[in-house]
Inverse folding.
């Protein structure tokens, strides 16, 4: 079975490595590299795996066939409206660094379809399950946003202040999900609280960006910081926010120069 992978970055190649080891025929498309055309990569594919940065997704999705099942592994997409028109899409998300997956380190992710679990499950990669695609997408974006604030505040992993922050942020995320028609309990899966804990500290790029902002409020990152893109979407009202979100409100008030 052929699977076309959109994005040959760290996470896309980590997931592609699993598929190749399990006997799937995989092919990558990445605009940064000169190789096969998009049409050649898509030809004969039974599934498409989306693993591009979130800011690139809107430029890729219009060219993908809407009748081929789409596995969304891109984090940072706030709204499921992004996939309007796709007949069959599923989400793969959670606290997994690409290098850990490539090294066979035990990792647990969240999947919204049994087909994803069947494709990717190994002795080191396991899953929890929900049908709440909207909630899983939102968790994957929101945890990056809050990780920036954790860096700005200089919170150190596993301290009392860090634990209190994570607890309060998870509660804010539950409110945001419920307010937008997703399931609040999705935050309790690894795509929510698990990924939040992983991202609110080094080596997370979002946390690092926040930490650098703490020293220089005008700092501009050289690489993509997914939380910045997600915060811009929040400020453009791509989702509806409930009242009483002190941590998110705090970050928004700090973000005038960079988001």
């Amino acid at each position: 079975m052929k699977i076309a992978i959109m994005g040959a970055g760290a996470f896309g190649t980590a997931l592609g490595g699993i598929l190749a080891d399990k006997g799937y025929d995989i092919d990558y498309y990445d605009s940064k590299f000169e190789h096969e055309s998009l049409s050649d990569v898509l030809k004969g594919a039974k599934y498409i795996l989306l693993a591009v940065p979130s800011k690139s997704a809107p430029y890729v999705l219009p060219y993908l066939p809407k009748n081929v099942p789409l596995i969304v592994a891109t984090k940072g997409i706030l709204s499921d409206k992004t996939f309007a028109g796709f007949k069959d899409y599923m989400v793969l998300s959670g606290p997994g660094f690409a290098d850990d997956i490539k090294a066979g380190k035990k990792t647990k992710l969240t999947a919204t379809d049994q087909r994803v679990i069947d494709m990717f499950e190994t002795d080191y990669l396991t899953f929890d399950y929900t049908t709440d695609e909207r909630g899983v997408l939102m968790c994957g974006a929101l945890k990056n946003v809050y990780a920036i604030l954790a860096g700005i505040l200089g919170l150190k992993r596993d301290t009392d202040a860090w634990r209190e922050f994570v607890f309060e942020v998870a509660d804010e995320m539950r409110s945001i999900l419920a307010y937008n028609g997703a399931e609040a309990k999705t935050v309790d899966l690894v795509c929510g609280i698990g990924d939040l804990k992983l991202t609110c500290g080094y080596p997370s790029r979002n946390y690092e960006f926040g930490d650098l902002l703490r020293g220089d409020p005008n700092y501009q990152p050289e690489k993509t910081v997914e939380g910045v893109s997600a915060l811009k979407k929040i400020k453009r009202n791509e989702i509806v926010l409930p009242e009483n979100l002190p941590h998110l409100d705090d970050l928004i008030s700090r973000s005038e120069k960079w988001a």
Notes: The first helix runs from residue 10 to 21.
